[in-house]
Amino acid sequence: MLKILHIIPSLSKGGAERLVITICNELQKRSDVEVRLMVLSNTNDYAQEMGTLSYNVVPALFVPSFTKKSKRDMSQLQAYIEAYAPDVIHTHLWQSEIVCSQINYPNALWVTHMHDNMPQLKRVRIPRTKLELTNAYERWIVTSAYKKRNAYFISISQDTNTFCKRNVPKKLRHSISMLHNAINTALFEHAKKTETYTTIKLVSVGSLVHKKNHAFLIPVVLHLISRGYTVQLDILGEGPLRKELEQEISKQNLTNTICLQGNVPVYEYYKQAQLYVHPATYEPFGLVLIEAMAAGLPVVCLDGKGNRDIIEQGKNGCMIFEQNPTLFAEKIIEICQDKEMYTSMSTYAVNFAKQYDIVPYVDRLLELYTKSITNA
Fold it and tell me: How far apart are CA 360 and CA 309, in angstroms?
């Protein structure tokens, strides 16, 4: 029986959190595996998606400081890990990395999941700002822990894989595998889209933060309207830019056209939409793009680097390589108004998404675990 512990700071809304839940839900179906999900704080925005999965809240704190005394409270986490005695400890996001760097448990395979290009892990020769100095200090702490363990790294795209190879300690660069993220495709499948749309129905999912670049969609919608189209755009997500976006939407008289729906289940919105739009300027991979494709939605997006692994130009979507709202809008029109093109892209998107299903993903993940433990 392989005992696996997944650790993540919380279950707040985000791609990493959604992936962890999906992984653990699939792992607990396997008869030769025992899995536990552990969080550092009791925030859960995925209560409806948890299914039968439970989780343990184990508070832990480590705030390093090179000028003052570091803040540290690791006793509960150390005791929990020793009591469970996992064969694999799989960590997600930087807070888990920095906290777990203080754990003394050499008996497990430690897997770091690179959900993005973590700035704290970036190698900087000469730190020039306070933030760079802080990141460099935290990097030294974490990489020192990696070197003492059977450490392994999972990158989620070609972009994060390149980052990982450049920035993890040289002696550990052979311990990196690329494994694209996955979804439970069955949750997103539905009847083939055959209806005729009188309104261009768009959906976009992501936190309301700068890198997701939702403001870019406002001039896109304005251009569609200027070309005589009726448009409905639903933006799913929450974040600090909500008020700013609301003000600009109101200023452009688009209150009834662009709706900020907040943190809501995405399934029904995918079913109702005609096209998925993704304006992020940086995207480590793009799990929501796979979800949309599984629901039969072609994708129009900007180049976020990591999502280059997903878009097959003209087949399951289109990537626009410059922040040009007119080009973006015209591509939407081209796809939506050509019924043959739309049907072809929709069908291809559904089939393309199947390769990212969670079942074969977990098969590969378990193979990685066992192979890495054997080779340690």
Answer: 18
The pLDDT tens digits of the residues spanning 83-137 come to 999 999 999 999 999 999 999 999 999 999 999 999 999 998 888 898 899 999 9
pLDDT of residue 127: 81
The secondary element (H helix, E strand) that includes residue 268 is helix 267-272
E-strand stretches of the chain: 2-8, 33-39, 56-57, 61-63, 71-73, 88-92, 109-114, 150-155, 176-178, 200-205, 231-236, 258-262, 275-278, 299-302, 317-320
314 CB contacts (<8 Å, ≥6 apart)?
345
- Of the candidates 102, 89, 94, 18, which has an alpha carbon nearest to the alpha carbon of residue 60? 102
From CA 161, how far away is CA 117, in angstroms rounded?
9
CA–CA gap between residue 304 and residue 15 (Å, rounded):
15
User: Is the separation of the CB atoms in 89 and 111 below 8 Å?
Assistant: yes
Nearest residue to 206 via CA among 284, 141, 143, 109:
284
Say what the pLDDT of residue 48 is: 80
Written as one letter, the residue type at 228 is G
Q: Which residues of the chain have pLDDT under 50?
A: none
List % helix, strand, coil for the chain (3-state, nearest 5): 45, 20, 35
- Per-residue pLDDT at 45: 87
Tokens 């003052």 locate to: 68
pLDDT of residue 192: 56
CA atoms within 13 A of residue 216's CA, in its CB half-sphere: 24
